[in-house]
C-alpha cells in the first residue's frame, strides 16, 4: 500500500484530485453594533409593525410583512424596489427563538415562477453591551460566491436602515 493511500485510509490526508475546493463563500458572517438596548433591537427584529419600518436594503420598501413569531411559525416579506418597481418576496420558518438574544430561521427567495429558491439558514445572536448591542449574523449555506455577496450587501444596507430607525 502506498504511503499516500495509508494516510488517506487512516484519515490523515485527503486524496489530491487536482480540484481546489474553496468553501469560504458558503457562510456569511456580519457583525454590527447598534446604539440601542438588546431588547429594543430584538423587538425591531421580531415585531412585524417595527420590522416593516426599517426592513430591506436602501432603494426598497417593505410593502408586506407577515410574522408568526413562534418556533415553527412562518415569516414572509415583500420588498418593492423603488428603482425598478419589482417585488421581491422572501420568507422562511422560525427554528429557534430565545428572547432577547437569539433567532434562527430559514430564508428563501420566491422565484419568478412562484417556486421557492435555494434555502439558507440565518442565525442572529445579540450581545448586551449596556446601552449598545452587538449583533452577529451567520447565514449559510450559499450556492455560490455571487449569492453570498448579494446577501452581504443586502444585510449591510438593511442594517444601515435599522441603525437609522433605532436612532429616531
Automatic annotation (TrEMBL):
Tell me which CDD domains the record gives.
Answer: SRPBCC_CalC_Aha1-like
Q: Where is the Activator of Hsp90 ATPase homologue 1/2-like C-terminal domain?
A: 36-166
Q: Where is this region: Disordered?
A: 1-21
Taxonomically, the superkingdom here is Bacteria
Kindly give the Pfam families that the UniProt entry links to this protein: AHSA1
Gene3D superfamilies, per the entry: 3.30.530.20
Q: Which family does it belong to?
A: Belongs to the AHA1 family.
Name of the protein described by the UniProt record: SRPBCC domain-containing protein
Q: Which organism is it from?
A: Kiloniella laminariae
